């Protein structure tokens, strides 16, 4: 009996209660701990319930990552215009060492990102590798602290399934925005 | 030394219950000329001391794992972690059957499943650099890669058709006491999705240029080492939920101090 109690406790910690109710192909099945810019820890599954724009970046990146942020901003705006609903944005850092929640909070302010809808998240190195794996984003740490990585916007439905991806970093990917509009319309 | 070894074995047995603990070989690490250099200048990489499973994980070992970790059984695993071909060659979710011998390396496993197995024995997947470091050795040399005869032998294996049955584990140990690095199966590494990001061939007008970030470009060094480059290409083409009939894995552990064999 005690053993069952312990087992239940273990299972409760192993995955959030609602993660198991999500579809098998949901990204949110991944049990990984993230910390947002306000030092709140959360699981991917906590994002279930509403479509999400997800991507990965790192803050010391000078070239590509500002473009990722601008592309997310433009895309979020275009979706809000078309679908009359503003998707949340989740941006997970590749840089487990330097992109602390405090630093992410600073960047959120500097870049004037909407704190109500944007989450800049930190995870440990193993968690980052797993999140990149479920999102099919490639990255490689370089000895000088930079990262090589692919730049991808991923659209997740309310249950965390990948609905669309875009590698268009200049302008707006109209097919991607249309897919998001459809998601909100179906809701 | 024998007493220490015996004590270690007893401890390992106690920790693992009845199943004998997997053997790990200690590797010293050090500076290493990877086919994927550390930076755009083609610099060496530095491998920290580590321990590597001396053999790939077998069907029998993976079966024991899924019996105690039901969420990794075929039919129960979430689709995001393993595609439909996951362990499809087994007779059932918990029976190997004729198509999978106990001492064959387990194949048709996803990266997520391999990670979970390694975590269950307090280990992790090796990094590409760790794998490459261990695979550079032949029976007598830590780095035999410059030897054309050695390269030829490995290339011969790659030229065999992949529909032939996977051999059993237990090949000859290499310089470090690690077996079956070549000639048996392809192997997952932890950073499989990090190997071919960025390229020096992309110029300003390349439409793909915008996909990449980071100052260092990735050059392939040692373009003649086809056997290892094929591994890089194959791993880079995979997604984490993918499985193939020739793809298995082994686990690694970080060690604080290296013991030179």
How helical, in percent, are the residues of chain B? 10-25%
Secondary-structure arrangement, i.e. CATH architecture of chain A:
3-Layer(aba) Sandwich
CATH structural fold name of chain B:
paralog of FGE (formylglycine-generating enzyme)
CATH class of chain A: Alpha Beta
- What is the molecular shape of chain B? globular
Class of secondary structure makeup of chain A: alpha/beta
From the structure provided, what is the oligomeric state, counting identical versus distinct chains? Answer: heterodimer
Description:
- The complex is a heterodimer of chains A (187) and B (261).
- With 187 residues, chain A is of the alpha/beta class.
- Helix content of chain A is 35%, strand content 20%.
- In chain A, strands 5-4-3-8-9 form a 5-stranded mixed β-sheet, with helices on both faces. A two-stranded antiparallel ribbon of chain A has the order 1-2.
- In chain A, a hairpin with a 5-residue loop joins strand 1 and strand 2.
- The longest helix of chain A has 19 residues, at 65-83.
- The termini of chain A are far apart.
- Chain B is α+β, with helices and mostly antiparallel strands.
- Chain B contains 6 helices and 8 strands; from the N terminus they run H-E-E-E-E-H-H-H-H-E-E-H-E-E.
- The longest helix of chain B has 15 residues, at 2-16.
- Chain B is globular, with a radius of gyration of 19 Å.
- Chain B starts with a helix and ends in a 7-residue tail after the last strand.
- The model of chain B is unreliable at 6-18 and 199-217 (pLDDT under 50).
- The A-B interface holds A 23-27, 29-30, 61, 63-65, 67, 126, 129-130, 132-134, 136-144, 146-152, 167, 169-170 and B 38-39, 43, 45, 77-81, 111-112, 115, 124, 190-191, 193-198, 210-218, 236, 239-240.
- Strand 7 of chain A pairs antiparallel with strand 6 of chain B, so a sheet runs across the interface.
């Amino acid at each position: 009996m005690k053993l069952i109690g312990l087992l239940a406790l273990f299972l409760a910690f192993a995955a959030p209660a609602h993660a198991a109710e999500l579809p098998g192909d949901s990204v949110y099945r991944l049990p990984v701990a993230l910390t947002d810019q306000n030092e709140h820890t959360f699981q991917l599954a906590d994002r279930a319930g509403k479509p999400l724009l997800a991507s990965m970046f790192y803050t010391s990146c000078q070239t590509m990552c500002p473009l990722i942020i601008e592309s997310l901003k433009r895309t979020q705006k275009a979706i809000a215009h078309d679908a009359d609903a503003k998707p949340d944005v989740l941006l997970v850092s590749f840089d487990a060492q330097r992109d602390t929640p405090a630093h992410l909070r600073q960047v959120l302010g500097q870049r004037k990102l909407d704190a109500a809808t944007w989450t800049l998240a930190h995870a440990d190195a193993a968690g980052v590798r797993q999140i990149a794996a479920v999102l099919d984003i490639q990255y490689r740490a370089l000895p000088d602290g930079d990262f090589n990585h692919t730049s991808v916007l991923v659209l997740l439905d309310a249950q965390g399934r990948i609905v669309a991806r875009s590698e268009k970093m200049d302008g707006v990917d109209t097919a991607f925005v249309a897919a998001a509009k459809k998601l909100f319309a179906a809701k | 030394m024998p007493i220490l070894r015996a004590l270690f074995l007893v401890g390992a047995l106690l920790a693992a219950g009845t199943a004998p603990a997997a053997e790990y070989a200690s590797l010293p690490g050090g500076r290493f000329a990877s086919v994927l250099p550390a930076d755009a200048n083609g610099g060496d990489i530095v491998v920290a001391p580590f321990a590597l499973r001396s053999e790939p994980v077998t069907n029998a070992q993976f079966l024991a794992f899924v019996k105690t970790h039901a969420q990794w059984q075929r039919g129960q695993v979430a689709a995001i972690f393993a595609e439909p071909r996951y362990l499809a060659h087994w007779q059932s979710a918990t029976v190997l059957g004729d198509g999978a011998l106990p001492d064959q390396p387990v194949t048709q496993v996803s990266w997520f499943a391999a990670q979970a197995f390694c975590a269950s024995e307090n280990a992790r997947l090796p990094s590409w650099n760790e794998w490459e470091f261990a695979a550079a050795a032949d029976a007598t040399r830590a780095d035999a890669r410059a030897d054309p005869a050695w390269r030829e032998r490995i290339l011969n294996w790659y030229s065999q058709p992949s529909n032939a049955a996977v051999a059993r584990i237990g090949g000859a140990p290499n310089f470090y006491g690690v077996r079956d690095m070549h000639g048996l199966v392809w192997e997952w590494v932890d950073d499989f999705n990090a190997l071919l990001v960025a390229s020096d061939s992309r110029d300003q007008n390349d439409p793909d240029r915008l996909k990449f970030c980071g100052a260092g470009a990735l050059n392939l060094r040692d373009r003649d080492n086809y056997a290892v480059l094929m591994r890089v290409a194959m791993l880079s083409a995979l997604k984490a939920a993918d499985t193939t009939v020739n793809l298995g894995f082994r686990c690694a552990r970080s060690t604080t101090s290296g013991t030179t064999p």
